[in-house]
Design a protein that fits this description.
Length: 263
C-alpha cells in the first residue's frame, strides 16, 4: 500500500475529481478540498465505489476567502497529515466585456485562481523542501498563453500561474531540490467551467476535451517530474501558436472562440 498523501483543491468535480481518481487508483490517501460538503461527499462515494477502501479526507472550504489557505494548512497539520503531492486545481472563469462583468466575481476569481494558489504553494512547498521530497501540480490553461478578450481576468490569472510556476521551477533547480513542480495547461474541457463562466453556448465550449483524459496526462507528467503538460493536440497548437503569432492576432483568435455558436 502507498503511504503517500495528495491534497487536491477543486476536487469535487471536473479535472480535479479526475485527478483525485488517478491518485486514489495508485493508493494515495486523498484529501479532497472544495466549497460544498455535499459535493465532496458525492465525490468520496464515487471513489469508494470504484476503489474500495481508499483513505479519503474531506475538507470543505472557500478559497475565495483570503484566510482560507492558512486555515486549510492548519487543519491538515492538526490532523497530522504530511502532503506529498499538492494539486492546485480550484478555479473558475467569467465571460463578457470587462466593463460589463461583476467586479466582486472577478476579485474572487483572482483570489481563487492566483492568490490562494500562491499561498498554498508557499505553505506546503516549504514543508516539502525540508523533507526534500514532494510534487506540486499547478493547473493553468491554454488561456495562459495569450490575452483573451471576454475572459480578460480569467486569462490573466492563468498567465500569472504560468509565469509563477516557471519561475519557481527554476528556483527549485537552482536549489538542487528533489521537489518537482508541473504545470498542466488544458484546452477547453468537458467540465462545468463553461456553465459557471456563462460561456456554455460559445465556440470554445462546442468540442471539449475529456476531463479524464486531460487529468491522466497531467498526472503522468507530474509523476514523471515534467515541467509542463499540454494535453491533446489542441493544447499543443495553442502553445506553439503563442510562440509565432503576435498578441494582437492571438487576442482576435481567442475572441472568436468566445462568440456564441449560431443556432
Amino acid at each position: 500500500m502507498n503511504d503517500q498523501t495528495a491534497l487536491i483543491t477543486g476536487a469535487s468535480r471536473g479535472i480535479g475529481f479526475e485527478l483525485a481518481r488517478c491518485f486514489a487508483r495508485d493508493d494515495f490517501r486523498v484529501v479532497l478540498v472544495a466549497r460544498h460538503l455535499d459535493e465532496l461527499q458525492e465525490a468520496a462515494r464515487l471513489l469508494h465505489q470504484e476503489f474500495g477502501g481508499v483513505d479519503i479526507v474531506l475538507l470543505p472550504c472557500d478559497l475565495s476567502r483570503p484566510e482560507t489557505p492558512e486555515q486549510l494548512y492548519a487543519e491538515v497539520d492538526r490532523r497530522g497529515l504530511l502532503i506529498d503531492a499538492l494539486v492546485n486545481d480550484a478555479g473558475f472563469g467569467e465571460t463578457g466585456y470587462f466593463t460589463d462583468t461583476d467586479m466582486q466575481t472577478e476579485l474572487n476569481m483572482i483570489q481563487v485562481n492566483a492568490t490562494s494558489l500562491v499561498h498554498l504553494t508557499k505553505l506546503f512547498l516549504r514543508d516539502m523542501l525540508e523533507r526534500n521530497t514532494g510534487q506540486i501540480l499547478q493547473v493553468g490553461s491554454v488561456a495562459s498563453f495569450s490575452p483573451s478578450p471576454c475572459q480578460a481576468v480569467y486569462a490573466a490569472t492563468k498567465a500569472f500561474v504560468l509565469s509563477f510556476t516557471e519561475a519557481v521551477q527554476h528556483e527549485l533547480r537552482q536549489q538542487k531540490s528533489a521537489v518537482t513542480m508541473t504545470i498542466l495547461c488544458p484546452p477547453p474541457t468537458d467540465t462545468q467551467f463553461f456553465q459557471v463562466a456563462h460561456a456554455e453556448n460559445t465556440r470554445a465550449a462546442s468540442h471539449p476535451a475529456s476531463a479524464r483524459a486531460v487529468a491522466q496526462e497531467g498526472y503522468d507528467a507530474l509523476m514523471d517530474g515534467a515541467a509542463r503538460s499540454l494535453p491533446t493536440l489542441g493544447a499543443k497548437v495553442n502553445f506553439f501558436s503563442s510562440l509565432v503569432l503576435p498578441d494582437s492576432v492571438l487576442a482576435t483568435l481567442m475572441n472568436t472562440q468566445l462568440h456564441a455558436v449560431a443556432k
